[in-house]
């Protein structure tokens, strides 16, 4: 009898491996991959589209492999033990979502990108389907207390590793800076070319862990904090309570140093909801302690930030300090721009450069080779020069732009030497709020007009950059600080999904979120936390809420989304 019990326990441990791989191994997977993004075909991108990737490429394929094994296990399990299969109706919205992901891939504007993933994302069709598989797997396989205990061990393990890595980064000693670490992430030949590129991604003491972007680190840390915070509040054994509290506190400390405002907001929501959901806190009438604790923690971190140069506080409130350049177009008879509400025309004629105020008809000019001071700004200027062909160099809004005339029409010449037309693009009117959210408002204003064309089927996974109006050089000068930057995401998961996989797919995701929220509230609100299933379930529930909230300002990524989908499956399993 004892032997059979041991076999059963070992079997259950095996079933948890796919989930543990997503929680513990995937976040740490960093290795160099060199690929071609295929954007060289566009005027707005350089001729050389060979790019290095450390953080997404191999994570993407790792998700594919683990999800495939999970699907095989599910098929055997549901085929052999039909009586143990849980009801699947909660996942109907996700099954419809998968259908539209597949349809969007079939009709994708770039099937190669949609099938294999592309450009700083690598969320291919297989990755998106893999997320659903992982959530369904967690839902079906989580059955016993030991299953939840094993997952908690995984959460604590990755939290401990991230805690160590994050502390090194806080104190300006990022492990990725060391040559011996970088040599583990690439071949000797690759190190000669790409060595040193990792630590140059971010400067200062931003915590990004092994996830590339501090925003992604903030989301993951917030989800881990939610689980550990609930465990700390509900634990009765003193030593364990101290352990959970210390690790949760470390996660909160590192969240601060991601300098991510979305993660900070999600953190506050998690703390407040934990106090509202837990019966012991409500029963002992200690809910009033939460605002006090938040205030004390806020005061503590503010003191730390001020001592460190107010790096965080300086980003807390967005101010509209953008240049008042609202449009710039290239046409046959010149370069037309609107600056601070005034329209101007700049053109070259008979070896002279002209600038005309189209409202007052005032006109300035300079001979070829002479600098022409422009009326838009004190330091605005232009010069008409003769290189291989005549060029107009325009310095405006702290940016130098090069223009040429070809076949009787003016064109913008980008950093890679390609010529491109500047034209007005469709944009939603945000009433001057485009600068909000580190100029996320600008990206949203250019994304919203794309939605009506993708109500049913999207442009395909990982094709956002190709659909976004990259020729909006004036907008990128003002809000992205460079006309040549590539906008690869909407910085809002729901907008990105709508564009890439269609409006119906977003509706399906939102329906699933509502199901998740309602089931979680019904099961965990003021319930007795007398089992690991209930405690971990509530922690994962709050983690999912933090992810949904943070993704109003961030996108789904291979760094953050696998943890969410695993937690979503755990919540439904615990609440079912």
Could you name the key traits of this structure?
alpha+beta, single chain
User: What does the largest sheet look like?
Assistant: 6 strands, antiparallel
Morphology: elongated
Order of strands in the sheet with the most strands? 8-9-10-11-12-13
Radius of gyration, taken over Cα atoms and rounded to an integer in Å: 27 Å
Strand content: 5-15%
Return the average pLDDT rounded to an integer: 89
Count of runs of 4 or more consecutive helical residues: 20
The computed structural class is alpha+beta
Number of domains: 2
Number of strands: 13
How far from one another are the termini?
30 Å
**Uncertain runs with pLDDT below 50, 5 residues or more?**
4-11
Helix proportion of residues, in percent?
40-55%
Q: Topology of this protein?
A:
Elements: H1 2-25, E1 33-36, E2 50-53, H2 57-80, H3 92-106, H4 111-116, H5 125-141, H6 145-170, H7 179-184, H8 188-194, H9 214-234, H10 238-256, H11 261-277, H12 279-283, H13 289-307, E3 325-331, E4 334-339, E5 342-349, E6 352-357, E7 363-367, E8 371-373, E9 381-386, E10 390-396, E11 399-406, E12 409-413, E13 419-420, H14 436-451, H15 464-467, H16 473-479, H17 493-501, H18 503-524, H19 532-550, H20 561-575
Antiparallel strand pairs: 1-2, 3-4, 4-5, 5-6, 6-7, 8-9, 9-10, 10-11, 11-12, 12-13
Helix pairs in contact: 1-2, 1-5, 1-6, 2-5, 3-5, 3-18, 5-20, 6-9, 6-10, 6-19, 9-10, 9-11, 9-19, 11-19, 14-17, 17-18, 18-19, 18-20, 19-20
